[in-house]
Amino acid sequence: MNTLEELRNRLDKIDKELIEKYKERMEISKEVGEIKVEMGREVLDPIREQEKINQVTEGFQDPFLKTGIAELYQQLFTQSRMLQYQVFINRGEDAKQGFQEVDEIAGKGKRVIYQGVQGAYSHQAARDFFGEDAFYTNVTTFKDAFEAVREGRGDYAVLPMENSSAGKVGDVYDLLVKYDLSIVGEIVLPISHTLSGVESSSIESIERVYSHNQAIMQSKEFLNQHPKWELNSMENTALAAKFVSEANDPRYGAICSEEASKLYQLKVLAKEINQVDNNSTRFVVVSKAKIYRKDAEKISVCIELPHETGSLYRILSHVIFNGLNMTKILSRPIKHKTWEYRFFLDFEGNLKDGSVQNALIGIENESRKLKIFGNY
Ligand SMILES: C=C(O[C@@H]1C=C(C(=O)O)C=C[C@H]1O)C(=O)O
User: Based on the domain organization, do 118 and 187 belong to the same domain?
Assistant: First the structure.
């Protein structure tokens, strides 16, 4: 019988040969890339790849070998396409996808739009980012905020994307797809809700509670202790505070920030009623200009894929093989297309990085649609 050492020596010999062949294959593939640039051909050739898989697995009955060889070749294809995209980048393809680098985003005198009334969490997030020197305008809906920036009535808009306990704000994702605005910054705001009522109210006098749906969800555990309360959804938390204040009825309560409670002269009946202690909301700053800070470290994209086996695998391989750290992936249905989805990806990196450029060119060429929301 062979000893472990003997077997390992044989493996080493085979690996040496494999590596030589691998190098040779990649060099040829790079040359193929050069021809493709000259001829204006696509890097990905799915028909050729399928033919190749058929060719190399032909005659194998053993399913282990058949699948193993097919998988090995999928990896080889991905790497050889990566090399070819690099040829395209080196020949001057716009790898930054039209984005311009800037030193700073926030500056004095910017016009900033937020959704909701004064004192809303969005207002607070906007002030955290832009400070006291900006001019703030509020609008009623998320869509209004996008339109205001598109039409130049504001330089930036601040919008909530997700909450750490209640999840994503789906409408904002859909609007980012629809409007041609870019994410240029983000703010993570710790969220702490109060239950507030008018001066004559107490926990015992409350019968109806008003707030934004998200805030109601975030305070579920607290609300479950008062099953008789009627829950009413409103546009946002600050509007709920305003409404309760104007109604001046001790039966009404608002779930809102302490700041909104103060702003509308309410009394705090219960503090920190959110179920998760470190509850926070992530807001993004959007602008019409396609800009990114030179020290930006996160990229958000949206991808539409053909409804085919392996299409998501192929896209993700560009992120993985370029060594990028993917921090989020989520999907949302495409409206009017049953069972078709868009994927939203976040990964770490800057548009200047070679690995980011390579991944983006690969994804762009191999998906039905790529939209870069921004680098921030
Ligand atoms: C090398 C090529 O480019 C890509 C990579 C392939 C491979 O590694 O064999 C096959 C098809 C293309 O998607 C080619 O077109 O031949």
Answer: yes
Alpha helices in the chain (DSSP H): 4-39, 46-57, 63-90, 121-130, 142-150, 170-178, 213-218, 220-224, 237-247, 258-263, 311-321, 354-366
- Residue 137 lies inside a defined structural domain of this protein: yes
Indicate the residue among 60, 93, 126 that finishes a domain: 93
Based on the fold, state whether residues 331 and 355 are members of the same structural domain. Answer: yes
Per the structure, the count of domains in the chain is 4
279 pLDDT more than 90? no
CA–CA separation, 238 vs 257, rounded Å? 8
Residue with tokens 């984005």: 99
Cβ atoms of 207 and 255 closer than 8 Å: no
Note whether 39 and 50 are same-domain residues: yes
Residue 222's CATH number? 3.40.190.10
Residue type, 3: T
- pTM greater than the 0.90 cutoff: no
Q: What's the pLDDT tens digit per position in 77-87?
A: 999 999 999 99
175 close to ligand 1 (CB < 6 Angstrom): no
pLDDT digits (tens, 9 = 90+) for 90-99: 998 887 889 9
What's the distance, Cα to Cα, between the start and end of the chain in Å?
60
Which of 141, 128, 174, 147 lies closest to 280, judged by CA? 128
**Ligand 1, from 39, 73, 80: best to mutate by most atoms within 8 Å of Cβ?**
80
- With a 6 Å cutoff on the Cβ, whether 80 touches ligand 1 is yes
What is the domain range of residue 219?
A: 194-270
Token pair for residue 335? Answer: 């409206």
The response to whether residue 45 sits with its C-beta less than 6 Å from ligand 1 reads: yes
Could you confirm whether 281 is annotated as catalytic?
Answer: yes
